[in-house]
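Report of the visiting student (M.T.), summer placement. My assignment was to run the structure pipeline on a short list of targets and document each run. The first record concerns Lipoprotein.
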Amino acid sequence: MWQDPLAGNPRVTDKSAGISYGVPDDWKQRKGELIKPFTSTIGKKPEGDGIGSTVIAGPGGAIPEAELKRTTEEAAWNNGVFFYPNGDSTMKKSESTTVDGRPAHTVTTAVEDGEGGKVHLQITIVALDGSQSAFVLGLVDPLGSPDEEVVDAVLASVEVL
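After the run finished, the structure tokens were exported:
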């Protein structure tokens, strides 16, 4: 049986998004105003090259279950372009899942940063009810960093409020 590696750690409660998620050791929650649509974020500074690791969450509109895959794949691509406009994305994985019994979808991509490096991008979108969804987006720079597993654990720790 899977055990949450973040069990017992502090959690971010994002009331705007309708979710909470675990905070890994050595990560910090950023306080203050974020650009829309982001309503909460945690992160860790890099130990070497790269920008470090970040998880960002926020609310979304209604997404029918039949549209979750397409919507999440588009969101992964769009976020890759948003954060790395000079790069290109390669999909590594796209899979249906559930979060607290709600339908969800997770997409993992490798994003070229436009400067010769690659970044791990993973996003999960959860259909909360007929009128709202939530997303949790993780970025790890550089690609291949051990923080990829940490971001996976954060996304797996998501709970619906």
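The CA atoms of residues 102 and 126 lie 7 Å apart. Residues 68-83 form the longest helix (16 residues). I thank the supervising group for their guidance throughout the placement.
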